[in-house]
Every structure is written in C-alpha cells, then in structure tokens.
Amino acid sequence: MIRETIVTTVDLAGAVHIAPLGLIGEGDGWIIAPFKPSKTLDNLREVPHAVASHVDDVRIFAGCLTGRRDWPVVATGGPVPRLAAALSHWELDVESVVDDEQRPRFRMRCARVAAHAPASGYNRAEAAVIELAILSSRLAMLPREKVRRETEYLAIAVEKTAGPRESEAWNWLMQKVRAFYGGEP
Ligand SMILES: Cc1cc2nc3c(=O)[nH]c(=O)nc-3n(C[C@H](O)[C@H](O)[C@H](O)COP(=O)(O)O)c2cc1C
Known about the structure:
By secondary structure, the protein is an alpha+beta fold. The protein contains five helices and eight strands; from the N terminus they run βββαβαββββααα. The strands form two sheets. A six-stranded antiparallel barrel has the order 1-2-3-8-7-4. The model has no long low-confidence stretch (mean pLDDT 98). It binds flavin mononucleotide. The site of flavin mononucleotide (FMN) has 17 residues, from strand 2, helix 1 and helix 3.
C-alpha cells in the first residue's frame, strides 16, 4: 500500500523542503524511499523527522514538479511544519535507515496524527492529475507512445470532472510534457 503525500522536512538551519513522495506501508509504520540525489534524503539525515500532509489540492503535487514549490506551511509544535492546505497530517520520526546506492529506505514511526478539515469524497480529475504528475516525472524513461496513450486517457476524467484547481494543475503538467517533446506527446 502506497499513500501519495506531500512530505515536509527541514535542514539544520530550519529551511523547509516540500516534495511529493509515496509513503510505503510496512507493518505499523511507513517507509520514505527517496531516490538519490534528494534534498528530502539530505534533510532526513540532518533532522530525522518529517511530516506527511494529506491534501485534496492537487496543484501542490503538480506545482512541486513544475517549479512551484512555495506552498504555505504552518507550525505543528514538532520540529517540522505541515502544509497549511493539509486536511490531515502525520508527524513521523525516523526509526531506522536501510542505506542503498540508489534508494535508501527510512522507516518512520508515526508519533502524532491530526485532522484539520473534512475530506470531501473522490474526484477522478484529482486522481488523473496525480497519475500525470508521476508520468511527467518519468518522461526520459518512458516511450513517447505510452505517454501519448496515457495522457489521452487521463484527459477524459479531467474534461468530465475537474474543477478549477484540477484544471490548473493539469495544465501546468501538460505544459511540462509539451516542453519535453516540443509539442503534443
Ligand atoms: C505522487 C508522487 C510520488 C512520488 N514518490 C517518490 C518517491 O517515493 N521517491 C522519490 O524519490 N521521488 C518520488 N517522487 C518524485 C519526487 O517528488 C521528486 O523527485 C522530488 O523532487 C524529490 O526530490 P527532492 O527530495 O530533492 O525534492 C514522487 C512524485 C510524485 C508526483
């Protein structure tokens, strides 16, 4: 089971870093597995805590992948802030680390859970934006034909069910895809 979240971490100077990361469920804990090199990885080594914010504003996923990382954060009372937009968040402490050439695994213990706003059900365009965010982070590794097919399919859910936030997030990511290929995928 993987939960797609927005992870905040801090460095020793207290500077906050925001990155979308999939948290892997393992027993009663969660694994954060950043590919090297990664600022999240460096921060977790400096300050062994993280916050996973659960959001329904998918512009934050799309924004982090398109140079728009400046999302408001608020203090939690712990060492790492959460996103202001979080519907809920988990405060996570590093319990142990398994090092790896490519992708170290940090086993995190959840020290505190807090809820801030009601969740409002599923929206297909939100899911489509998250899928496109992942696709757009792997363009150099994927065949163009696959990207064309999948963006065409995901666009159906966006056309049918998006609100303004989902449309904006979709457009940011499609601009990135078009810039990569010099046109439509
Ligand atoms: C939904 C989603 C899940 C992601 N999960 C991971 C992950 O588990 N590990 C990782 O290294 N990058 C993941 N990425 C890509 C990172 O967000 C991106 O590379 C990020 O900038 C991490 O590097 P940083 O810590 O230097 O910011 C994911 C991206 C998205 C959109």
